[in-house]
Amino acid sequence: MPVPNPAALEFFLTRRSRPAKTLAAPVPDRQELTTLLTAAARTPDHGKLEPWRFIVLEKAALARLSERIRPLADKLGIDADKVEKAYRQYADADLAVAVVFSPKDSEKVPHSEQLYSAGAVCLSLLNAALAAGWGANWLSGWASHDRSFCEDGLGLAPHESIAGFIHIGTETVAPPERPRPDLEKIVEWVSE
Q1: Do you know which Pfam families this protein is assigned to (predicted)?
Q2: Which of 10, 40, 183, 187 is the one with CA 20 to 30 A from 159?
């Protein structure tokens, strides 16, 4: 018989991301963050390839990245409202972890499965932070898909990309609950 963990199930049934713009200092220290990264790295990983890695971005690094946003937006012709939102994502943050998708050559494990593993790492880190009592949010944004931003700003290799930025900090405002999926519309039961 399975051994239930009601507290863990209740966490998953009630978990809620916190908007990054509502997170502030203090943030986890290196020891606390190492625990969260350890939890995140215990994710499904077909072939044990570890097709992901972490870049911990502290306040000064985030400020440096924010200064790349406006020139990059001008070059790409990004709308002004999107520019300000992207700028604030970095300029106002105290801590974010970039989860880097770093696929490995494998005859056995396709690229798509490795990408799913990187996404699972993002969700695992988000949930670990929330379970530890921190506010957290998973973001990406247009800049994270630009090669110059990724390679020059973050040091990614040409074959790597951003799976997500997990912002972690102290929640300043409790977010309202949002509508959740209607299972009647998305679940199909197959008995034969």
Answers
A1: Nitroreductase
A2: 40
